[in-house]
What we know:
single chain; alpha/beta; Rossmann fold; five-stranded parallel beta sheet; 5 strands
Amino acid sequence: MSNYFANKKIVLPYDFSDEANESVDEALKMADDSTELHIVNVVVPIRDYALEAGMTIGLEDDKVRMDTSAGKMADKFGDRSDKIKFATRLGDPGHEINDYASEVGADLIVMPSHGRSGVTRLLLGSVAERVMRHAECPVLILRKPR
């Protein structure tokens, strides 16, 4: 039986949550040696949200945060770097994920229904919903059983 994902490109939004780790594991199960996997982490410009919330102390530079994110992804998945391409973007996660998927010509986006929670989710809304509504390719939303 041939693999449906042979010679396909799969984009995996990654926010370092347990759910995102599970999405990567599922995508690796689907992929074969010819599948291109792209993990993208979107760094939210913290000043935009912090200033709205009245916080101005201790904000890191966005470039530093992007470099930190890239380093963490390399540490986490570096042993599989022959199978996975990494990208770090700055902006609104819903838009940046879709833009990145378009740029690489993705055939599929695989992501959890929920990633980070609490204040981050409150401020950003549902990233999965925005990706699903605006993606130019199919989106597989992985949901944990209750």
